[in-house]
Specification:
Protein name: von Willebrand factor A domain-containing protein 2
Disulfide bonds: 737-746
GO molecular function: calcium ion binding; identical protein binding
Shape: flat
Oligomer: single chain
Structural class: alpha/beta
Keywords: Disulfide bond, EGF-like domain, Repeat, Secreted, Signal
CATH topology of the largest domain: Rossmann fold
CATH superfamily of the largest domain: von Willebrand factor, type A domain
Radius of gyration: 38 Å
Number of helices: 19
Largest sheet: 6 strands, mixed
CATH class of the largest domain: Alpha Beta
Helix content: 25-40%
Strand content: 25-35%
Distance between the termini: 30 Å
Low-confidence stretches: 1-23, 754-766
Organism: Octodon degus
């Protein structure tokens, strides 16, 4: 039963002030599109005759900071207006408790004067009497205007918290032919902005907190009335889903507590339980459609290949951020290098049988080759000759030391037509082709002739070809499938021939030709591009002494390779009580650095798991993010004592399915069944009796590495992150990202707007 107490105290409850709501107008589009919207706002221009009046809310609810942002928005809009007495006139009125004309439409005749006056405007404060400002305009018209003889544009910049009714007054103003834009600032009341704006409201309600977006939206609407236009004809106004969001504070029941209320009896209060509340901030979202102008950007054509990121630079320029292996080219095309001392003479078929199209194709191949392969410090020198009935030495070897000059000289080589006398041309090259190369015989580099043709010779080629090869010249052939047999006869070996099936495939053969140069200095396959990982068993079963012999062995193997980011990349993983990446594929860029790092690899001891080690390579080593290069053959050479291989069959197959060849080198008197199953194909298993015998098997292992050429696929391993899908595309690739991710490799999370659910902190009741 409730008890009664004397009324002997006065209870005072203090409630904290409810925080204002936080507005956001958010266009749901990719970062690239948002950037295009911002860029397009600077490409739009309004030169049609019209009167533009800014009506600034200068009340206390706005505050000085938001008033300055309103001025910044107005100045940005003015940058797009052709302000002059006969074209665009601009005026400004500020209102708080009363309207105050800042300057009339006929006060200034240049954009510079208008913007300077806007900057000088002072915040006045007062109540938000939007209605009084609208009555002022209804009664007097737009100050200094042309009385409706030109379009009249009213831009109201306000927080939408008027002290009185505005809808009827705004409607009367619109009926007089005034186009009204309502631009929110600070914490606007969106409902009032919609009541102020012309129809359709979605094209006339904006947010000054996002200046470039609001400017684009305003100018896009005016462009639909032919008052504004874009600098580029292919710019388009498009609809984008967007939303107006407010962060509002709502009251939520938190519980009940004892309290005292008045009772019917005099001088008594009733003791009972009263509810108390907490305040919670929640996002409320209002879906809308925003109309914005976008223009094609320099990155729309996706000029950056092989996973490069295109970065716009202004409206028509860009640069590519390229992966390490592709940094030598502007567009991240595959770049190569020639580290050897070499003189190369390209011999181009300029006969009628090859035709002008084939000749131009060969010339483009040579130009792209020197751009991709040669550098300022390259030791290679290039010459170019063309032939049909006669041979013409267009670019003597060594004439151009400057690469741009060499490239420009190639443009001057002309098509001649005539019969295809390849044999005569070869004989001339053997006698005279390298006479301009002034290096002495003691210091003579390797000399190479590269024949490019699509036609069978009309004279005898076998004798002249033997004459060329007898002069200690390396003879290589590049041609279509139609001339493959003759090219093999000319060069003396199928391995010296580069064949393409379709004309458009010729440029893709540059890496193959590069791989056939610089091959004579050492054994192995030093010029072959490959990502190679050695996996060493560092478990207690092997022991530190045998592990040291394995280290020495892989160092000896590495001596056979040309280690650099364009050719061979080498990594090392060891496993024992744990799996450890001694160094990744892109950690060391020279052979000397790799050899040093191999010597420092740790012996781990403990019990090893080959399966775990192979999965480690799959997930954390042989990936594009860790330096693996798309489109390059990949191999793993595993040297193990055989223990701990029981769980490795599935991981090894997983690597092979992803385009990685796996060689198992089993050391010990007897091979275990687990190692046989792990090796898979019989040619992927080498049995070595003891660790000291490893050097005797080096040639066999090097041969396997050089032949480890699974079909190259730029999408294996996939360069796409976060479950993105890699899609092959004309010698390159692109990543299709799943929902919520974007970027060249799906590396960026897309930040979406919050739903109208509770977010932020809770506040205790006062």
């Amino acid at each position: 039963m409730p008890s009664f107490l004397p009324l002997g105290a006065i209870w005072i409850f203090l409630f904290s002030r409810v925080p204002p709501s936080l507005p956001l107008q958010e266009v749901h589009a990719s970062r690239e599109t948002i950037g295009k919207i911002a860029a397009a706002s600077k490409m739009m221009w309004c030169s049609a005759a019209m009167d533009v009046l800014f009506l600034f809310d200068g009340s206390h609810s706005i505050g000085k900071g938001s008033f300055e942002r309103s001025k910044h928005f107005a100045i940005t809009v003015c940058d797009a207006l052709d302000i002059s007495p006969k074209k665009v006139r601009v005026g400004a009125v500020q209102f708080g408790s009363t309207p105050h004309p800042e300057f009339s439409l006929d006060s200034f005749s240049t954009g510079r004067e208008v913007k300077a006056q806007i900057k000088r405007m002072l915040f006045k404060g007062g109540r938000t009497e939007t209605g009084l400002a609208l009555k002022y305009l209804l009664q007097r018209g737009l100050p200094g205007g042309r009385n409706g003889s030109v379009p009249q544009i009213l831009i109201i910049v306000t927080d939408g918290k008027s002290q009185g009714q505005v809808a009827l007054l705004a409607n009367q103003l619109r009926k007089k032919g005034v186009t009204v834009f309502a631009v929110g600032v600070r914490f606007p009341r969106w409902e009032e902005l919609h009541a102020l704006a012309s129809e359709p409201a979605e094209q006339h309600v904006l947010s000054a907190e996002h200046v470039e977006d609001a400017t684009n939206g305003l100018l896009s609407t005016l462009s639909s009335s032919a008052l504004c236009s874009t600098a580029a004809s292919d710019c388009r106004v498009e609809a984008h889903p967007c939303e107006h969001k407010t962060l509002e504070t709502i009251r939520e029941l938190a519980g009940a507590a004892p309290c005292w209320r008045g009772a019917p009896q005099a001088d008594t209060v009733l003791a009972t339980r009263c509810p108390f509340y907490s305040w919670k901030r929640v996002f409320l979202s209002h879906p809308a459609t925003c109309y914005r102008t976008t223009c094609p950007g320099p990155c729309d054509s996706q000029p950056c290949q092989n996973g490069g990121t295109c970065i716009p630079e202004g409206l028509d320029r860009y640069h590519c951020l390229c992966p390490l292996a592709f940094r030598g080219d502007t567009n991240c095309a595959q770049t190569l290098s020639l580290e050897c001392r070499i003189d190369i003479l390209f011999l181009l078929d300029s006969s009628a049988s090859t035709a002008l199209e084939g000749f131009l194709r060969a010339k483009a191949f040579v130009k792209r080759f020197v751009q991709a392969v040669l550098s300022e410090d390259s030791q290679a020198r290039v010459g170019v000759a063309s032939y049909s009935r006669e041979l013409a030495m267009a670019v003597p070897i060594g004439k151009y030391q400057d690469l741009p000059d060499l490239v420009r000289s190639l443009d001057g080589i002309v098509f001649s037509g005539g019969p295809t006398l390849t044999g005569k041309a070869l004989h001339w090259v053997a006698e005279h082709g390298f006479r301009t190369a002034t290096r002495t015989s003691h210091d003579r580099p390797q000399r190479v002739v590269v024949l490019l043709t699509e036609s069978y010779s009309q004279d005898e080629v076998a004798g002249p070809a033997r004459h060329v090869r007898g002069r200690d010249l390396l003879l290589l052939g590049v041609g279509s499938e139609d001339v493959q047999v003759e090219l093999e006869e000319i060069t003396g070996s199928p391995g010296h021939v580069v064949i393409y099936a379709e004309p458009q495939d010729l440029l893709n053969k540059i890496p193959e030709l590069q791989g056939k140069l610089c091959v004579w200095p050492r054994s192995g396959c030093p010029a072959q591009s490959m990502d190679l990982v050695f996996l060493l068993d560092a478990s207690a079963a092997v022991g530190p002494g045998n592990f040291a012999q394995m280290q020495s062995f892989v160092r000896s193997c590495t001596l056979q390779f040309d280690v650099n980011p364009d050719v061979m990349q080498v990594g090392l993983v060891v496993y024992g009580r744990r799996v450890q990446t001694a160094f990744g594929l892109d950690a060391h860029l020279t052979r000397t650095a790799v050899l040093r790092a191999m010597s420092q690899a740790p012996f781990l001891g403990g019990t090893g798991s080959a399966g775990t080690a192979l999965l480690h390579i799959y997930d954390k080593v042989m990936t594009v993010q860790k330096g693996a290069r798309p489109g390059v053959p990949k191999a793993v050479v595993m040297v193990t004592g055989g223990r701990g291989a029981e769980d490795a069959v599935v991981p090894a197959q997983k690597l092979r399915s992803n385009g990685v060849s796996v060689l198992v080198v089993g050391v010990g008197p007897v091979l275990s069944d687990a190692l046989r199953r792990l090796a898979g194909p019989r040619d992927s298993l080498i049995h070595v009796a003891t660790y000291s015998n490893l050097p005797f098997h080096q040639d066999m292992i090097i041969k396997w590495i050089c032949g480890a050429k699974q079909p190259v696929n730029l999408c294996k391993p996939s360069p796409c992150m976060n479950e993105g899908t890699c899609v092959l595309r004309r010698g390159s690739y692109r990543c299709e990202c799943r929902s919520g991710w974007e970027g060249p490799h799906c590396e960026n999370r897309v930040l979406r707007g919050d739903t109208p659910t509770a977010r932020g902190s809770r506040q205790d009741p006062a």
